[in-house]
Specification:
four-stranded antiparallel beta sheet; 11 strands; globular; 110 residues; mainly beta; seven-stranded mixed beta sheet; 50% strand
């Protein structure tokens, strides 16, 4: 399974770092993604990173503010989020194919 952590309450303009750890599932060599679900809305793809970590992809809405990284030695995935705004409020999920974490809540509020 996948386990996300690092969510919380942050003021507009603030930063958070999300992490995803794998247990019983490997992330190695797989493209893995962050997906979010804003309150009352559907799932929104945020970012993905290739299995080797050399290629990363971002949704236009977060490009330049979020950075996805991975540590294959540790089997972890991270999402550094900066300049957060109200529209970034969502439950953030780590995803590898059919595997999903339980999500971590990010709330941007003043």
């Amino acid at each position: 399974r996948l386990v996300e952590s690092g969510g919380g309450l942050v003021q507009p303009g603030g930063s958070l770092r999300l992490s995803c750890a794998a247990s019983g599932v490997t992330l190695d060599d797989y493209t893995v993604s962050w997906v979010r679900q804003p309150p009352g809305k559907g799932l929104e793809w945020v970012s993905a990173i290739s299995g080797d970590g050399y290629r990363s992809f971002y949704a236009e809405s977060i490009k330049g503010r979020f950075t996805i990284t991975r540590d294959n030695a540790k089997g972890t995935l991270s999402l550094q989020m900066m300049s957060l705004n109200f529209e970034d409020t969502a439950v953030y999920y780590c995803n590898r194919g059919e595997y999903w974490g339980q999500g971590t809540q990010v709330t941007v509020s003043s």
